[in-house]
Every structure is written in C-alpha cells, then in structure tokens.
Write a structure and sequence with these properties.
Radius of gyration: 30 Å
Membrane topology: Multi-pass membrane protein
Strand content: 5-15%
Number of strands: 5
Helix content: 55-70%
Largest sheet: 3 strands, antiparallel
Main location: membrane
Structural class: mainly alpha
Family: Belongs to the pannexin family.
Organism: Helobdella robusta (Californian leech)
Mean pLDDT: 75
Shape: rod-shaped
Distance between the termini: 25 Å
Subcellular location: Cell membrane
Number of domains: 1
Length: about 350
C-alpha cells in the first residue's frame, strides 16, 4: 500500500518514469549515435572529419541565422553549450520530483508515527464472508492499529500540555500539506526551467508590455513562439589545427540531429508539466479544504458509523464532537489515506468503531 494519493504518485512515480524514459532516448542518440555532423572541407581525411565532429561537440557551437552575417566579435556570438548536459538535467529533474516523497517518509520516521504500517492493512484479511475465527483474527489486528493510534494521541496530548497553543496535534496534517506544497512548487520550478530552455518569452515582459486589454491574437501567439537559438539544428564551429609551426583556423557548418530530439522532448515535458500543475494545484486546494474545515467531514464519518449497525442513538452532534475533539485533522488524514489505499471500505468503518 501507499501513504499518499494518486496525484502524489503522478508526481513522484509516473513523472519520474517519463523523465527517465526521455533521458534514455536522448542518451542513446548522444552516446550511441551521432549527435553532430559537420560539413568539412574536401581535403579532410575521415580521421580529420571525426576530429572536427568531436572537437565541435566538446567545445560547443554557436548559432547564426543564414540571413545575418557571422559576428566577428566572439562576445556577440550566441554559443550553445548546454545540449551536452541534457541527460544530466533530465535525471536531476527526476530527482526533484521524487525528493518530496523521500522527505515525507523521513519526517514520518522522526515523528514516531509508522503511517505505512497503519495504511498497509491487508484488506483481503478482512472479509465478512469468512469464518468467525478468521474475522476475529482480522479484528484483533485492527485493534492493534487502533491501540497504536490511541498511544500516538495520548503522547500528543501529554506533550502539548506545556503549550498554550497546541503545536503537535496537527503535525501530521501540516507535514502532508507541506509535502503537497513542495510538489506544487517543484512543478512550477520545472516549468520555469523548461521554459528557459525552449520557449522564447513565455514568462518574459511580454504581458507587462502589452498589459492593455486590446492586444491582438498575433501578439498573443508570439508569446508561445519557440526560440530557434535554444536548440538550433544548424550551427557553426571554429577550431584550430596545428601543423608543425603553422596554425590553421577552420570554420565549419554543423548539423545537430540531437537537438531535434531535445526540442520535441522538452515540448512534451512543457505540456505535461502544465497538465501536472493544474492537477497538483486542484489536489492541494482540495486537501487544504478537507483538513482545514474539519466539520465538513463529520457527515461522512457519521454515515460510516451508522453503517456499522452498532449504534442505536447516534446523533450528528456526537459525531461532530468525536471528529472535532478526538479524531482531529491527523485522525481524518489517516482515515482518508486508508480509504484511498484499501479496496474494502468496511476496514475504515471498523477502525472508526474501535476509535469510538
């Protein structure tokens, strides 16, 4: 079982898989294929051509549009030096998406709450159609979980008596919301990174320059225009060759097939990150509302307790008091995580009954 929800897994697992798959594609072309091919003079031997390709790949190339002259000043040339490091960048992005989950697990261990053991309840052991002996075994295991939760709450109450404001009662919920906020900030950071490598002026001063309402469609479409100098397909390369006492300078034109793959990969990643940002934002606001407004979940807890058929006179006021004064935000979070990761919803009802 997991100790998070589907949107968290979309960030830490599926996005990491996409980034690692992109890393594999780019690395195969870069290290097993031919990432650069330079058009060399006719007097170059095959070994000279291989040397030109290697030195242009290592030292980098610069972009100059065909309709413009080659700048004589080196400082005015638009050098492209980062495409060699794209696989490492993709791996780094995958690490940033998995890091919040590692932080979440590390903080849980320091809190002394084995949430994984609580959520990892084997719902196939809790089947009402089984024998009474098997059901009693599952119930005893359920009581062990409830006992663990009770010990946690007693420890929280005992420690919080020293404070006027209880800083410990909602620490698990605060940690979970903080983790989700880190996921959200991480997606925003990766959007900015991909934008800086791909899009011409998505987050530039375009909107500030055209802050009036009456800007036309062409100006708006220019915002999403790709910059050809970011991943150029055709570049120039300067290198020197020493022949005894003479030093010859060569300028060759190179084609970068690797940049065709890089550009398509980052276009897909930019679209994926925007999609992920919308889902993560909605999910964060949803969990913030569920854990902040505790009374909103009192109705669902009331329905679960009534479905157990063990209460004769269960009022909504009693359920609200149980949720507000005993379960609190941390208890509701644990119940929600069990409900999300367990197929048998009767398991949550049984735990709530023992907590009651």
């Amino acid at each position: 079982a997991n100790i998070d929800d589907g949107i968290d897994r979309l960030n830490r697992y599926y996005t990491c898989c996409i980034l690692l798959a992109a890393t594999t594609i780019v690395s195969l072309k870069q290290y097993a294929g031919s990432p650069i091919d330079c058009w060399c003079p006719g007097n170059f031997a095959p070994s000279h051509v291989d040397y030109a390709n290697s030195i242009c790949w290592v030292n980098g190339t610069y972009f100059a549009p065909f309709e413009e002259a080659i700048p004589r000043d080196i400082k005015l040339r638009s050098f492209v030096l980062y495409y060699q490091w794209i696989p490492f960048l993709l791996v780094g992005q995958a690490v940033t998406f998995f890091s919040p989950y590692i932080l979440w697990q590390f903080c849980l261990k320091n809190l002394g709450i084995n949430l994984f053991a609580i959520v990892n309840v084997k719902d196939d052991n809790f089947d009402y159609h089984r024998s009474e002996k098997e059901r009693s075994t599952a119930a005893s295991y359920c009581k062990q979980i409830v006992g663990y939760l009770k010990r946690c709450y007693r420890w929280l109450v005992r420690c919080s008596r020293c404070f006027i404001i209880n800083p410990l009662s909602d620490k698990l919920s605060f940690l979970y919301l903080t983790t989700k906020l880190i996921y959200l900030c991480n997606v925003m950071l990766n959007i900015v990174i991909v934008d800086s490598l791909l899009v011409k002026k998505l987050f530039s001063s375009t909107f500030s320059n055209h802050s009036k309402i009456n800007f036309n469609i062409n100006e708006f479409s220019d915002v999403f225009q790709l910059d050809p100098s970011r991943f150029p397909k055709v570049t120039l390369c300067d290198f020197l060759i020493r022949q005894q006492i003479n030093v010859h300078r060569y300028t060759v034109q190179c084609v970068l097939p690797i940049n065709l793959i890089n550009e398509k990969v980052f276009i897909f990643l930019l679209a994926w990150f925007f999609f992920l940002f919308s889902l993560t934002t909605t999910n964060f606001l949803n969990w913030l509302a569920r854990l902040w407004f505790v009374f909103c979940q009192a109705n669902s807890i009331h329905q679960r307790l009534k479905s157990a058929d063990r209460f004769n006179n269960l009022s909504r006021q009693m359920t609200s008091k149980f949720v507000r004064d005993y379960l609190k935000r941390d208890g509701l979070l644990v119940m929600d995580l069990i409900s999300l990761n367990a197929n048998d919803q009767d398991l949550v009802t049984e735990i709530l009954f023992h907590l009651w």
